Amino acid sequence: MLLGVKNMRGKYGFRFGPAFARFGYEAPRMKRGDIKFLLLEVLKDGPKHGYDIIGEFETRFHGYRPSPGSVYPTLQMLEEGGFVTGQEVEGKKVYTITDAGLKLLEERGEKPFEGSPRREKTVELWKSLGKLAMAVTEGSRNADDEVVNKMAEILDRARRDIYSILSEA
Fold it and tell me: 156: which DSSP letter?
């Protein structure tokens, strides 16, 4: 049986985020204040809107994907400080690094975000698990009992195989 989380509408779904820390997965963390430097690093390559910036984080910084709740207030703070400018383009606010922002990065020096290889592997495993969960969900929607039982056998065998691999390590 797959574990689900009941949402506010009373439906079950799957969450792959902080709730999975109890299963050994922790989202990457950084020191307080580092996100502003990472935002400026991303904007060095050219103007971007918020969700482009968030997507770029995941690519550049080893699977780290900050929440909009941490990105947008930081962009606003950087804009108020004169480190970035923001202007409306086709209904989206596009941010551009300023000379002051470039100077701030230069003064900080080279301190790239350091993700561990272990964290990268963990992120890849969780992506695979998410794909598996989607396949099981889609496959079981209109399946008969025989198909559901076969899927449960495959999942149980996979779990046993994983424990077997871990016991040998």
Answer: H
- Ordered domains of the chain (ranges, CATH): 34-113 (1.10.10.10), 116-169 (no CATH)
Beta strand spans in the chain (E): 5-6, 12-13, 48-49, 84-89, 92-97
Assess whether pLDDT exceeds 80 at residue 148.
Answer: yes
List, in sequence order, every residue forming a beta bridge with 49; answer none if it has no partner.
Answer: 94
CB 122 within 8 A of CB 25: yes
Per-residue pLDDT tens digits for 5-42: 444 444 444 444 444 443 444 444 555 567 888 899 89
Tally of CA atoms within 13 A in the half-sphere of 59 that contains its CB: 8
CA distance 6 to 44: 41
Q: Which residue has the tokens 């820390």?
A: 21
* The pLDDT of residue 114: 54
Q: What are the phi and psi torsion angles at 36 (to 5°)?
A: -65, -35
How many other CB atoms are there within 10 angstroms of residue 87's CB atom?
10
pLDDT average, residue stretch 139-148: 90
